[in-house]
Q: What sequence folds into this?
């Protein structure tokens, strides 16, 4: 008797839920987040690769819920997680390589980003999921959704979802001698940036052709100020050549985005510039509680950047006053500040609209 009454209640709930969730709104899916790029966005894809570029060990994730080393390149939440939170998604989209089955009914999106990836397939080749390969995976995901809800609804869903991209930092690092691949250095910085921009243009177009319309594009950081490059300077100063490349890249990328918007119907974007945001954060470091802006929290040697953070390293005790977690990656504290700027800030850090305005459109 009790059992059948419980069944009955469960039955009503299921029917009610069915009516609310599926009859009221058809099969339309809630906008989600599709993430492509490199380590600033990777939430664990590289765990599934045979690669040196992998951080699924303690002390990575020391400030993540449960202290779990998820494969995020940081001490806790990363940019992706703050984007998901600010968008009001229930969870940060999972790594593509962790998904055995794609349930569109519950999706908050998919994360294709892979530590080490660059615009050029040659960047850290064989050690990451190249950006072009990430787009193939995005394509496969779109097809998987089509199978479940049909092409029309799928394109509606993709066009309302956020396409988050951060790519280029590793190409800039490789040009400056950091990475696991070498490039032909016979080009000038200008020629190299030309090559990056002309290579990324058709890839962004591919994503548009797969239905992407709302783009959150994150530019290059002040790569010359990463501890790994500072540590190579006799003076310990930022590497001016690498910073020049970052600035040039951001300028060209921003103008490429303007072109895409004027040439492709419905293409909308918000460009976040982590270079200018870093400079601002540096200038106002005391206000933000950052007392250590040069030395990495985890690592050893000069600026804690000549011996990488590894499983036996005991990191610094205060991570909220450090800008850098390891020799290449920011702390959680910086990711939070950056995404606050991306969502609520303005030119020159985020434009032509901020991410909040993009999400309101
Ligand atoms: C998603 O929900 C629909 C409608 O209830 C259902 O027909 C479909 O089987 C569900 N798909 C999955 C993968 O659970
Ligand atoms: C997506 O994959 C299909 C094959 O499944 C292919 O024909 C198409 O060119 C791909 N699109 C992009 C943008 O890569
Ligand atoms: C860490 O540093 C911040 C900023 O300097 C400071 O406010 C905070 O009290 C420190 N936390 C600990 C546990 O020492
Ligand atoms: C790991 O880091 C420690 C310093 O924290 C260093 O002494 C040790 O040599 C490193 N191990 C490897 C394999 O690099
Ligand atoms: C440098 O790294 C060590 C771990 O190797 C850590 O204990 C120390 O606090 C770090 N220094 C700074 C200034 O963060």
A:
């Amino acid at each position: 008797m009790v059992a059948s009454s419980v069944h009955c209640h469960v039955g009503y709930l299921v029917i009610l839920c069915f009516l609310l969730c599926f009859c009221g709104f058809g099969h339309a899916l809630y906008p989600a987040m599709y993430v492509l790029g490199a380590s600033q966005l990777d939430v664990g894809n590289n765990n599934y690769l045979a690669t040196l570029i992998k951080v699924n060990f303690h002390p990575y994730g020391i400030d993540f819920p449960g202290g779990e080393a998820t494969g995020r390149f940081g001490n806790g939440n990363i940019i992706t997680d703050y984007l998901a939170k600010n968008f009001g998604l229930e969870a940060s989209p999972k790594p593509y390589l962790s998904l055995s089955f794609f349930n569109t009914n519950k999706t908050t999106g998919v994360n294709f980003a892979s530590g080490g990836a660059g615009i050029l397939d040659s960047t850290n080749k064989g050690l990451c999921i190249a950006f072009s390969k990430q787009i193939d995976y995005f394509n496969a995901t779109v097809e998987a959704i089509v199978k479940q809800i049909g092409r029309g609804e799928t394109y509606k869903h993709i066009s309302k979802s956020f396409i988050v991209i951060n790519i280029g930092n590793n190409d800039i690092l490789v040009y400056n001698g950091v990475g696991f691949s070498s490039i032909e250095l016979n080009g000038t910085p200008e020629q190299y940036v030309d090559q990056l921009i002309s290579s990324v243009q058709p890839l962004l177009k591919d994503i548009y052709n797969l239905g992407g319309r709302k783009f959150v594009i994150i530019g290059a950081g002040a790569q010359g100020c990463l501890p790994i490059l500072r540590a190579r300077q006799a003076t310990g100063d930022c590497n001016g050549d690498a910073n020049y490349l970052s600035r040039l890249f951001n300028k060209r990328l921003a103008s490429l985005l303007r072109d895409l918007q004027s040439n492709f119907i419905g293409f909308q974007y918000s460009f976040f510039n982590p270079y200018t945001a870093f400079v601002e954060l540096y200038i106002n470091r005391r206000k933000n509680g950052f007392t250590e802006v040069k030395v990495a929290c985890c690592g050893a040697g000069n600026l804690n950047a000549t011996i990488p953070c590894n499983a036996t390293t005991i990191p610094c005790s205060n991570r909220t006053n450090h800008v850098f977690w390891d020799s290449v990656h920011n702390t959680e504290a910086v990711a939070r500040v950056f995404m606050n700027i991306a969502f609520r800030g303005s030119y020159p850090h985020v434009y032509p609209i901020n991410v909040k305005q993009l999400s309101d459109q």
Remarks:
- The first strand starts at residue 33 and ends at 37.
- The pocket of 2-acetamido-2-deoxy-beta-D-glucopyranose (ligand 3) is lined by residues 289, 291, 318, 320-321 (CB under 6 Å).
